[in-house]
Amino acid sequence: MDRTQALLNTLYKEAELLDEGLYREWLGLLSEDICYRVPVRVTKERGPEGGVSGVMEGMYHLDEDYTSLEMRVARLETGFAWAEDPPSRLRHFVTNVRIGDPQPTERGEESAVRSNLLVFRSRWDRPDYTLLAAERRDVWRYGPAGWRLARRTVVLDSATLPTHNLAFFF
């Protein structure tokens, strides 16, 4: 299997781990220097340059590194994470994956990956649910253990979050 196909399979495996709540195993897909961000979305008038609304520079719903992500996973494992009691039922739909050409770096070969994401979240036994659409802008690094996520920026389509918390991962 070539590296591009292996990276695509890793993206699907990551979605499966998140859907199954296997967060400790998900951490194994992250590089130790991970930068994991969800910037705040802003809506503004269309200017002369056109385009759609962007993100607020320097302002994040989540701004995580490996240590903070590991602490969040450890908290979920305690059973005392009230925002996830009962645990959310999640489904990550990863689509429109665009994998850039590998680039050599001092840390190994890296590929920029952009993908679209739809996260379905359901809790309790109610018919209500949350849908979050986003674009993920990733950098994946290839090494002896395979592909590892080095950077992720999740650009949500919503400027206002339709959920009370972001106690799950994208």
Automatic annotation (TrEMBL):
Coiled coil regions in record: none
GO biological process: 3-phenylpropionate catabolic process
Amino-acid biosynthesis keyword on record: no
Gene3D superfamilies: 3.10.450.50
Domain of life: Bacteria
GO function terms (MF aspect): biphenyl 2,3-dioxygenase activity
EC number from the UniProt entry: 1.14.12.18
The entry's keywords: Dioxygenase, Oxidoreductase
CDD domains: ring_hydroxylating_dioxygenases_beta
Pfam families in alphabetical order: Ring_hydroxyl_B (PF00866)
Record-linked InterPro entries: NTF2-like_dom_sf, Rng_hydr_dOase-bsu
Major enzyme class: oxidoreductase
Protein family per UniProt: Belongs to the bacterial ring-hydroxylating dioxygenase beta subunit family.
Name listed for the protein in its UniProt record: Biphenyl dioxygenase subunit beta
Name of the gene: bphE
